[in-house]
Design goal:
single chain; alpha/beta; Rossmann fold; 3-stranded parallel sheet; two-stranded antiparallel ribbon; 5 strands
């Protein structure tokens, strides 16, 4: 999903939380993170370069790759619990 499509999707739907892969073939997901942050939607980055994400988006929740499925499940549960 392109960054513009992601922003439109966020705008048009009831998004409670999001998991972003930091780097994509077309660039990074920082613009999408900004949209989520502006709307108060909790999110996390999954990435193999946590230091880079921390420098570019201070305070972001980061799930370093590789991770176990239970770590992702726990992180998403925490994000969704924040919205309830």
């Amino acid at each position: 999903m392109s960054q513009n499509r992601a922003a439109l999707h966020i705008e048009a739907n009831n998004v409670n939380a999001a998991v972003l892969d930091y780097l994509l073939q077309a660039g990074d997901t920082l613009p999408v993170a900004r949209v989520l942050g502006e709307r108060g939607i909790p999110f996390l980055f999954q990435t193999s370069d946590p230091e880079c994400v921390a420098r570019k988006h201070a305070g972001a929740l980061i799930l370093p790759k590789p991770y176990r499925p239970d770590q992702l499940t726990s992180a998403v549960y925490s994000l969704v619990r924040e919205t309830s």
